[in-house]
Amino acid sequence: GYVVLTWDAQGQGRSDTFGHGEDQMRGVPSQQAPNFIEGTSDALDFLLSTPSSPYKPPRPAGAERQADRVAAGRAEPFNPLHDLIDPHRGGLVGQSLGGTAVSQVGPTDPRVDAIVALDNLLPLPENAPHPVPALGMSADYGLTPTPYTSDPDRSSKSDAASQIAAAGVPSGELVIRGGTHYEFSFIPNPGFGGTLRGED
After folding, report:
1. If we measure between CA atoms, which residue out of 139, 124, 120, 181 comes closest to residue 112?
2. If we measure between CA atoms, which residue out of 105, 93, 90, 91 comes closest to residue 34?
3. Other CB atoms within 10 A of residue 167 CB
4. C-alpha distances in angstroms, 112 versus 29, 91, 148?
5. Which of 130, 152, 153, 154 is 20 to 30 A from 27, alpha carbon to alpha carbon?
6. pLDDT of 9-52, one tens digit each?
7. What is the edge-to-edge ordering of all strands in the sheet holding 171-176?
8. Which conformational region is residue 178 in: left (phi greater than 0), alpha (psi within -120 to 50 degrees), or beta?
9. Could you tell me the pTM of the whole model?
């Protein structure tokens, strides 16, 4: 019952590291929150594009590149699965900087109805016009765990969920006891340690 679009942020996966034309160095180095935030909005634009409302990237250089790729038969002018999409029931899920992105885009974009932020849900953007139901998932530790000498504060990562709840919108935060930032992505390398709890 779900249609899912997964996309790669600039400089990750199959996405280009460098931009196009006048945007050649925009977003470089690639591991920055604005790339994820802008990319999330852009992915929504493509997901909701139709034959009568084709996909058009928001920046001129991206729009030019999209037009070139469509003309060469290397890109679709609109979402080929558009007829399976209910534009009134959309959600976002993001991990790490993707969690930052969904925390920013969800409450400000009326096309979004719910969000899940994996490590971690952030407070509402200033003057967010559209708070949405939100679930945050986090872990006791960050990237490199330094063992606590006492029990961690159970509410230390729940500020954003509490703020959203105070706005009258359902929200919650789950924290994996003893977990790390790497609970939410499978990386088969012991240098990126998590626990079995996250995968379960």
Report:
1. 124
2. 105
3. 11
4. 28, 5, 37
5. 130
6. 988 888 889 887 788 888 898 889 999 999 999 999 999 999 99
7. 91-95, 114-118, 134-139, 171-176
8. left
9. 0.90
